[in-house]
Amino acid sequence: MSTTMGSFQKFAGSPVFGDENTGTVFDAYVKMTPEGRYRMDFSWRPKAALAVTFSNDGIHWEEPAVTLECNPASGWEQLVNRHCVMPDPSGDGWLMWYTGQLWDGDHGKSWIGIARSDDGIHFERFLKDPILVPEADFEKESVMNPFVMFENGKYRMWYAAGETYEPNVICYAESDDGIRWTKYEGNPIFEANPEKEYEQERIGACDVLKEDDGGYLMFYIGYRDINTACVCAARSKDGITGWQRVPENPLVTPTPDTWDADSCYKPTAVRADDGSYRLWYNGRRGGAEFIGYAEGRIAPRK
User: I need a surface site. Which of 19, 169, 245, 293 has the fewest CB within 10 A?
Assistant: First the structure.
């Protein structure tokens, strides 16, 4: 490890995934496979597709494979991006929740769809329409960045909502089957705090982990302004209400004159055996985005 920007230590060899050959890769989702490997699902801009790569150590990644391509004919999937993947709780195959986007000039709109795979690589849509759409005033034009957890027989989704270029708030929904969702009446569950410089503009794109004490730790993006972002975290006892920002915020911030000099976006994390967190994020300098890596600790809840 090397540089300290924020409370986490950035890996000196970052970016760990993405280069001039791949073009922009962003909004990674990293989790452990049943075989104990790291699986990174990510959005691949030049391919206008979703893709996956695997690693034995979380730093050296294999050649990626496309998992789902865009479907402009659908009327809502001119682009696909910002997704999450999990083994089907039934024990048969894999499930994916993804963001579909439609752009008309500078005006965009986003929805959330679902796909399924037998092998975890080749996904197919099994519904032609989105399963979650923007409805409430605060959802504005978009629902996006789904993060889904299966717990106690229910699917739990945290998602970002608001504007399409960058979302504004984080919301919550539940489902019995992963398809038909009921949005939480108290949405949004998490909003920007203007008193915190690192997130005074807006927040978005979360990754949620269950903690040993039964609570929930949420990693999220904090936006100082629309083009400057960092990685932060907050805790809740039930994953819905009473979110408290951790004192270690911000965890990862841009490093001047480097590949992530403008912004550090979309965190995704795995807890290591020693209690520390392994964290991946997409960094941006100019128009190029790649995936970086950092490690750090967050003190237990008091």
Answer: 19
